[in-house]
Amino acid sequence: MATTRGIPIVADQPPEQCLARVYVWQLPVRVSHWLIFFAIISLSFTGYYMHNPFIISRAPTTYMMGTMRYIHIISGYIFLAAFMMRVYYFVAGNYWASWRFFIPTDRQRLKTAREMFKYYSFLRREPVRQVGHNALAGMTYSFIFFLMALEILTGLVLYSQVRGPGLARTLFGWVPGIIDIQYLRLFHFLCMFAFIAFAIHHVYSAILVSIEERNGLLESMFSGFKFVQGYELEEQEQRRQILLKTSLPSRIARWWSSRKKKGA
User: Fold this and answer.
1) Considering the entire predicted model, what is its pTM?
2) Beta bridge partners of residue 228, listed in sequence order
3) Residue 215 class from Cβ within 10 Å (0-12 exposed, 13-18 middle, 19+ buried)?
4) Integer Cα distance of 129 and 134 in angstroms
5) What DSSP character marks residue 61?
6) Dmax (CA) of the chain
7) Domains in the chain, ordered, with CATH?
C-alpha cells in the first residue's frame, strides 16, 4: 500500500478503481471562494438597484437608496478581503491553489487547455482529468481575477468621490483626473454582467465535469477533498517535482549553493 501526503492508496486494485482521498482545497481557499460568490450576488443586486431603482417604498421613514448603498459598500469590503485572501494563497497555498494552476507555464498545460477547449466544443468525448483546475479553467479564472481587480479599483475610485476626505480620496482621488468618472462608472457597471455570465457558465461546467469525472468535484468546495485515481496522483506528483526543480526560486537556490561551494 502506497501513501501520498499521509493518504493511503490501495495498490491491489485495478488502476481505474484505485482511488485516493486527497485534500485539494484548503479551508481559506474555500472560504474566499464562497465569500466572493455571495459578495458578487449582493453587489450585483444593490449595484443594479443604484443604477436603476426598481423598488419603491411608500413609508415616509424609509431610505431605500441609502440602505442599498450601505449594503453595497459593506459587500465591497467583504469582496476586497476575500480577494486579497485568495491572492495570498496563490503564493502561500498548497500546490493546487498555486498560481501555476492558473497561468500555464509549460507546454503540457497549454496542450491540456487545447484538449479541454475541444471538450467544451463537443470535439472531444471526455474531459482531461486533473486533480486541481484544468488548464483552460485556470486561464479563464486568471482573466476573471484580473477583472475582479479592476472592479475593485474602479469601485474604490467611485467610493472616494462620495466618501470625501480620507484614505480612499488620498489613494484613488487622482484617478478621475486621468480617466473620466463616467467611463469608470460604466466599466464598473458592465463588469457586473461579465461576472454574472461567468457564474452561469461556471456552475454549468462544474456540474458537467463533476458528473463526467465522478470524483467529488462539487462536494470538494465544501469538504476540500476529491477522490482521485492513483495514476493521476502519481503523474501530478511527477509534474509537481519537475515544476519545483525548474522554478525560479529553485534555480536561484541552486545558483547560490554552487556559488558558496566555489567560494569554499
Assistant:
1) 0.79
2) 20
3) buried
4) 8
5) T
6) 83
7) 1-23+230-264 (no CATH), 24-229 (1.20.950.20)
CA angle 97, 233, 35 (to 5 degrees): 25
Q: Give dist(CA 121, CA 133) in Å, integer.
A: 18
CB atoms within 10 A of CB 123: 9
Residues 6+ apart with CB under 8 A from 1: 8, 9, 10, 11
Helix and strand numbers, DSSP H then E, in the chain: 9, 4
> What are 8's three cell numbers?
493511503
- 44-48, 106-110, 219-223: the lowest-pLDDT one: 106-110
Report yes or no: 117 and 104 within 8 Å, Cβ to Cβ. Answer: no
Residue 129 to residues 14, 208, 235, 244, Cα–Cα distance (Å):
18, 13, 11, 22
| Cell numbers for 117 | 477547449
**Sorting pLDDT into bands at 50, 70 and 90, what band is 39?**
very high
Give whichever of 166-170, 176-180, 185-189, 212-216 has the largest mean pLDDT: 185-189
Contact 195, 147 (CB under 8 A): yes
Torsion of CA 205, 211, 214, 215, to 10 degrees: 30
**Closest Cα to residue 105, out of 144, 70, 142?**
142
